[in-house]
């Protein structure tokens, strides 16, 4: 008996190994691979932006050059230049940095807040549940767009305020999902076991409940990243986005719109960029859902 | 059902009071810069103070909130600071314009998405299913301002068939409303189509459909008489909830095409800090949100007798 008790646990697989085995799961769904490739392509471009042979995204060169036009210094404006003479390709790629960083950050913060609310409401129940659910209902019946516009227009258009706005808008939805999952999970035997061992409430929430709720949450997170990307671009389009002069896909469209009659290419490039990134997130979500249904 | 209605009404009122109070408080913290927007960026501090004093914005906060809410209950939302007119005079025509737009979108989107969803869901995994599913993911991935850009490039600048703005200066025009409707249908139909498909797939795998097919009832009849009725319950609730999306989600489209609707009014008011317009618009939006949720719940019980409210 003592032998068995002293026998060491098998070592937990390393982080890299877990990552690779989760990624290889994607092979089961071509849709997920397509989505992953799109997202990864944008991430790669954003990461490599500083070392790619690009013009500075904020420096005026020659205005209104059509896509493929030759530059004065012998280079090529692959996607043309905008009304201020800035290279559009470079603005798209540097814009990807902005969108990816802020969309990820905003979604992550929304998730932390939403998961905390959901697990507390679901596990503790009672007044906690009543109070948190009421707050969530107030925020959910607030039309999302109104919420964004009111927060960003009152508090100023900065990255952090956009994160705040997205958190307010998304956390209640996440809270509902997590609460539902936790209500189911807390009746499982391993939770009772942990309670019997005398584990603290916090331990049960963080170690027993949340990790076991991850399946549906990963699919939801992928979808939400897509929505957040749309939101950030849309706020940029409405003039409530990240402060200039750094490139912002949404703002690029709004700047190009009045010039559509003779410089339509200016708006097409950012519109394609946003759509392809969002498509990536949506395809990934779809593929992941498909994979999880198979099990 | 009456109990549910009363509950919903109560929570709606509670939410409206909370929301309007928060908005009022936000305005309170920002009123000095609103005075600056009215009087111009070069107005002096004293001028702004005088303006605030003259318009009664320096009265005690709670007192002003109470007066406003008592008036609002009677339908008087105060005057717009920016437009210098009673809010009601501005709000209703704008709401009407958005209702026209939303109505047209519904008229095209619902038949399209239900048909596509049912066709896709009839046979899971078929070529038709795959292509419809992928099309609907594609169209929902293109945000409204991006699809508006693409469609304008085609219909306005290349083909020159349609006007690029929808300001409706000479009254209602079908040509002007075509693009906004197209953009919204394109963005919105995918979601409903996918819901319909999922629900149809579920129904098609159920035992009673298998029995019907095995009994030798013609396939057409199985789909139309047996499957559709149950498959359309879930999409119904989604469709009703889309009312909410159409009210405020159309802001971008209204801005893109300069359409004088509710969303544009709200955006302009929020950018200016036009508090009474913001309050009125938000209350309307909350009302539509709660009301559509209620309709969707009621509809769900009526369509599916197995569900009862406790």
From TrEMBL, chain A:
Q: Does the keyword Transcription apply?
A: no
In terms of superkingdom, the source organism counts as Bacteria
ABC transmembrane type-1 domain boundaries: 96-285
Which InterPro entries does the annotation name? Answer: BP-dependent_transpt_permease, MetI-like, MetI-like_sf
Instruction: Write out the annotated subcellular location.
Output: Cell membrane
- State the Gene3D superfamilies in the record: MetI-like
Alphabetized UniProt keyword annotations: Cell membrane, Membrane, Peptide transport, Protein transport, Transmembrane, Transmembrane helix, Transport
Primary localisation category? membrane
Q: Which residues form a coiled coil?
A: none
Q: Does the keyword Mitochondrion apply?
A: no
Q: Where are the transmembrane segments?
A: 31-55, 99-125, 131-151, 222-242, 262-285
How does the record say this protein sits in the membrane? Multi-pass membrane protein
The family note in this entry says:
Belongs to the binding-protein-dependent transport system permease family.
Which named protein is this? Answer: ABC transporter permease
Originating species: Sneathiella chinensis
Automatic annotation (TrEMBL), chain B:
- Gene3D superfamilies per record: MetI-like
**What kind of membrane protein is this, topologically?**
Multi-pass membrane protein
Q: Which family does it belong to?
A: Belongs to the binding-protein-dependent transport system permease family.
Q: What is the lineage of its organism?
A: Bacteria, Pseudomonadati, Pseudomonadota, Alphaproteobacteria, Sneathiellales
Compartment(s) of residence: Cell membrane
**What positions does the domain ABC transmembrane type-1 occupy?**
95-296
The source's superkingdom equals: Bacteria
Location (main, coarse)? membrane
Pfam families in the record = BPD_transp_1 (PF00528)
Q: Which residues cross the membrane?
A: 9-27, 99-120, 132-159, 171-192, 231-257, 277-303
- Organism source for this protein? Sneathiella chinensis
Name used for this protein in its record: Peptide ABC transporter permease
Q: Is Cell inner membrane found in the keyword set?
A: no
